[in-house]
Protein: Vacuolar amino acid transporter 1
Organism: Prunus mume
Amino acid sequence: MWNTIGKSLWLKSNCLFHQNQVASDSVHRGNLALQQLSCNACLEENKACKCDQSFESCKRVSGVDEHHAEANNSFTHSVINMTGMLIGLGQLSTPYALETGGWSSAFLMIGLGVICAYCSHILGKCLDKNPKSRSYTDIGQQAFGTKGKLIAATLIYMEIFMALVSYTISLHDNLNTVFSGTQFKVSWAKLSKSQLLTLMAVLVALPSLWLRDLSSISFLSFGGLLMSLVIFTSVACTGIFGGVKANHTIPALRLHNIPAISGLYIFSYAGHIVFPNLYKAMKDPSKFTRVSIVSFTLATILYATLAFMGAKLFGPHVNPQVTLSMPPHLIVTKIALWATVVTPMTKYALEFAPMAIQLEHNLPHSMSSRTKLIIRGTVGSVLLLVILALALSVPYFEYVLSLTGSLVSIGICVIFPCAFYLKICWGQISRPLLLLNFTLIAFGLLLGVVGTISSSKLLIKNLKRAHSG
């Protein structure tokens, strides 16, 4: 398995791109989507790559054939990569979402999986129309020009930022549980134990933001998919060996909670930023639709299984992060908690990489390499501390994650793929497909608006309650 995962890293001759395709969560999806920054991603030390050249020029300079350098993924390899993109942070919240919305909300989860699989398929159709398009932002530019590219890039950065806030909240919550019996206090610091622990964990990860070697940074995410499988297995072991009986009754439907949990469900399928990269990496792109069907089916099965398993095991007391519901005395619980703690600490440098690349590219070429390193490291450190401050100020994992899904992910996964497809392929689309895509856009807008309003209200309500208390 590790050999397969390792193949996901590509070095395009002298232009070094971070192409790790086995990310553990939707945060990492933005990283791959922004790789195609022309030669922006070339490291300055690499003199063979001229950063003022286009991507095509860079390939000519290096003398590398694009097809052999990149399009070498088999069907199985592509399924592994896409499934790895889909299974991540969202899995922690699926048991909570099912319990909150009722067991019939699983049909919404499955339906969103089908819709997102279809939207993955039409992104491939858009790439067919223009072989030069290589990324989500390229498709946006192909459809709506510079404005389309700008909107796509904005959504990507928003998702990265908001998901990193959710990751840090998860880090805070799980650290607090891991060290629940430990006394830890600094007399001069006006912070709680959990806040101090989170601050220390973030400070430990902070130096990684100063790394410039993207191929080294990419190895930080190798354990992501493994950690997700560890969490799933740990929850299963809790029911099989942990003495916890799956005897809770899941309510049929709680309609008033559906808008809030819809964001949690849609976030779980948010991988579309990266799918153009996966498409371009395939030996036979005509199989991309089959890859999407298999990958979304596998992800949906895992989500549904974990959702019903967690809801039956923990019932109305299930935590928005299922790991926090597990009995603290069990070994599998400690393993799951540490898996959830370690993962965010390995992600910060990885997810800051796209923004760091763009930032460094925009700096004057006359600026020395050391100065650029100081600037990007400083900006990354400040950004991480802002994320930390937000996570500690708004420690409500489920509402932040739901808001991310409703505000950003629904646009990335449903609304914009359909809009791009309609604009690019208008003349070749049949009337039934036109109706379908317009319906999906309307459905996405409705779900996004009601979900954003609902999750925002809940977030504000809990912030007011905490402030008044």
